[in-house]
């Protein structure tokens, strides 16, 4: 019996997949660099699924499996919110909701040298980037972008941090802007940082704005785009 030819990658994107599904054939994608996110593994030229969920794609060529879960599996280039739990001579130990603590080298900052090592107290909230995520090893973090610049990375002061599922975090970071953030941004002024590890930080001049934005985001996960906008309008009417 002849083997069934593999469908094109586009046919699997945004579709439900289960462990064992082969979603990509690298032999048919010559001269293309493919980045694999969580839920996928490579076996020779075949890319197969390791967990149930929906296959997602982002340009130029990154694929991952998105599922609603609290536990976070670190992947290289993920941006996450971490909490400092301990400090060592050469690094900070950071909780990123993964299977193991991550470490942030004291020199992993823009212009970092032994003379200007940052000082973070236990409990400090950091916006960081995952630079190493090998199986069986503690993930490594950085407070710089790929060009060595601080960009938006570093400690997050004040504000309010809450936890969510990883799928909600990805929805908030999707492009174009997700409906709930678009609707809130038209009426309110606030700052937000979203970690792919299921943590969200919100800050605003007024505590009532922080509460409203946080509640709107937490209520949005199971709603459609239209329902998210209606929900935001109702929340805004209550505080006017």
Automatic annotation (TrEMBL):
<feature type="domain" description="K Homology">
    <location>
        <begin position="159"/>
        <end position="207"/>
    </location>
</feature>
<comment type="similarity">
    <text>Belongs to the RRP40 family.</text>
</comment>
<dbReference type="InterPro" id="IPR037319">
    <property type="entry name" value="Rrp40_S1"/>
</dbReference>
<dbReference type="Pfam" id="PF21262">
    <property type="entry name" value="RRP40_S1"/>
</dbReference>
<dbReference type="GO" id="GO:0071034">
    <property type="term" value="P:CUT catabolic process"/>
</dbReference>
<keyword id="KW-0271">Exosome</keyword>
<dbReference type="GO" id="GO:0034475">
    <property type="term" value="P:U4 snRNA 3'-end processing"/>
</dbReference>
<dbReference type="InterPro" id="IPR036612">
    <property type="entry name" value="KH_dom_type_1_sf"/>
</dbReference>
<keyword id="KW-0698">rRNA processing</keyword>
<feature type="domain" description="Exosome complex exonuclease Rrp40 N-terminal">
    <location>
        <begin position="34"/>
        <end position="71"/>
    </location>
</feature>
<dbReference type="InterPro" id="IPR026699">
    <property type="entry name" value="Exosome_RNA_bind1/RRP40/RRP4"/>
</dbReference>
<dbReference type="InterPro" id="IPR041054">
    <property type="entry name" value="Rrp40_N_euk"/>
</dbReference>
<keyword id="KW-0539">Nucleus</keyword>
<keyword id="KW-0694">RNA-binding</keyword>
<dbReference type="GO" id="GO:0071051">
    <property type="term" value="P:poly(A)-dependent snoRNA 3'-end processing"/>
</dbReference>
<dbReference type="GO" id="GO:0071035">
    <property type="term" value="P:nuclear polyadenylation-dependent rRNA catabolic process"/>
</dbReference>
<dbReference type="InterPro" id="IPR004088">
    <property type="entry name" value="KH_dom_type_1"/>
</dbReference>
<dbReference type="Pfam" id="PF15985">
    <property type="entry name" value="KH_6"/>
</dbReference>
<dbReference type="GO" id="GO:0000176">
    <property type="term" value="C:nuclear exosome (RNase complex)"/>
</dbReference>
<dbReference type="GO" id="GO:0005730">
    <property type="term" value="C:nucleolus"/>
</dbReference>
<dbReference type="GO" id="GO:0003723">
    <property type="term" value="F:RNA binding"/>
</dbReference>
<dbReference type="GO" id="GO:0000467">
    <property type="term" value="P:exonucleolytic trimming to generate mature 3'-end of 5.8S rRNA from tricistronic rRNA transcript (SSU-rRNA, 5.8S rRNA, LSU-rRNA)"/>
</dbReference>
<dbReference type="InterPro" id="IPR049469">
    <property type="entry name" value="RRP40_KH-I"/>
</dbReference>
<keyword id="KW-0963">Cytoplasm</keyword>
<dbReference type="GO" id="GO:0000177">
    <property type="term" value="C:cytoplasmic exosome (RNase complex)"/>
</dbReference>
<protein>
    <recommendedName>
        <fullName>Ribosomal RNA-processing protein 40</fullName>
    </recommendedName>
</protein>
<dbReference type="InterPro" id="IPR012340">
    <property type="entry name" value="NA-bd_OB-fold"/>
</dbReference>
<dbReference type="GO" id="GO:0071038">
    <property type="term" value="P:TRAMP-dependent tRNA surveillance pathway"/>
</dbReference>
<dbReference type="Pfam" id="PF18311">
    <property type="entry name" value="Rrp40_N"/>
</dbReference>
